[in-house]
Structure formats: C-alpha cells, structure tokens
C-alpha cells in the first residue's frame, strides 16, 4: 500500500474525531490555538518514545500501566499544563475537553503513522476503530477533571484543584493501561477479544455521553 494511502488512513479518523469534538463547542476555540495544541501533541511523542525505550520493564503490569500508559498520558498532561492551563482561550468548561482531545489526537496521529507504515491496511483499519477512539476517550476523561481543576483554581480552592489534576492523569492512565492490557492479552487468549470489545464499546458510549453533556452544560469558568 502506497504512502499516500497510509497517510490518509492514519489521519482521516483523527480529523473526523477532531472535527466532531471541535464543533460540539458552542464557543469554538481559535484555530491558531487548536493548531498549536495539535502540534505540541505531535511533538510529545518524542519524550514518550524516549522514556519507553530508556526504561523498559519485563513486568507486564509495569510496562503497560507505567512505561506506556502513565508515560504517554503524562506527556499529554504536561502539554496541557504548560501550554493550555494559563492560556487566555481556556476560559469555558468544555474547552478542557476540546484541548485535551486535540493534544491527544496530535500524539495519536504521529503514533498512527508509525504503526501503519509497518502494519499496512489491516493495522490501519484496526487502529482507526480502536486506538484512535481510545486515545480520544483517555483525553475526554482527562479533560473532565481538568475543567474541574481550572474552576477550583479560579476560586482559590487549591486542595480540590490538585486532587482534580491528579484524577485527570490517573483516570486517563488507568483507562489507557486497561485498554493496552486487554489488547495484548487477545494475542495469546482469544477469550479476551470479548473483554476488549466490551471495554471499548462501554468506554466509547460513556465518553460520547460525557461530551454531549459537557457541551450542553458548557459555561464560563468564572461566573459573572
């Protein structure tokens, strides 16, 4: 399969999901801010891969939940905190989900291209149906708690702010690690295919509901 098809299959699901989430925002974010968030998400692949290569583990739990799940979600979280947290455009509750998803999809786009170049058409389809929605869902979970943290920040509730930030990273990491564990187990035990499908379907539905409700109830971080 040609390079153009690889790029198309790698980026089309990313673009489709980003379009959907972006247009659920009643007060759309500036394209420039979205573009830079996506770019920083792309670049965050570099420290993630570096950390995963430098600190491999023979323990499957540590490898999946720490070296992959925690590391990858941490670099996305770092971009959120360094670029978005104090950005003037981050002023409504739904913005947290928009920016979290944008950064995560930037990361996923680069990762997708890398996997699909080696895996071909079949891998491209599987990743479009599972991995890209997975990264999106991890980001949505992170965004929910990021919005709470920013609201607590505005009102000076420091303990609640730090708790929400911790939960933002923790929930995304647990969801990511669980997905990776079930995906790995399917290669050695076909019974885990059902568990993987069930997990993905439940997670996708839950996150669609979260996005719908968060969009519907979108409001400024600070009430006038």
Structure description:
The protein is mostly helical and 224 residues long. The chain has 7 helices and no strands. The protein has helices at 3-22, 31-43, 45-54, 60-84, 95-154, 158-186, 192-216. The longest helix is centred in the middle third of the chain and has 60 residues, at 95-154. The chain is globular, with a radius of gyration of 17 Å. The mean pLDDT is 93.
Structural class: mainly alpha
The number of distinct β-strands equals 0
Oligomer: single chain
Report, as a whole number of angstroms, the end-to-end distance.
55 Å
Mean of pLDDT? 93
Calculate Rg over CA atoms.
Answer: 17 Å
Q: Helical content, roughly?
A: over 70%
Write down the overall geometry. Answer: globular
Quote the beta fraction: under 5%
Order of helices and strands: HHHHHHH
Q: What is the overall number of helices?
A: 7
Largest sheet: none
- Which spans have pLDDT < 50 for at least 5 consecutive residues? none
Descriptors for this entry?
224 residues; mainly alpha; 0% strand
Layout of SSEs?
Layout: H1 3-22, H2 31-43, H3 45-54, H4 60-84, H5 95-154, H6 158-186, H7 192-216
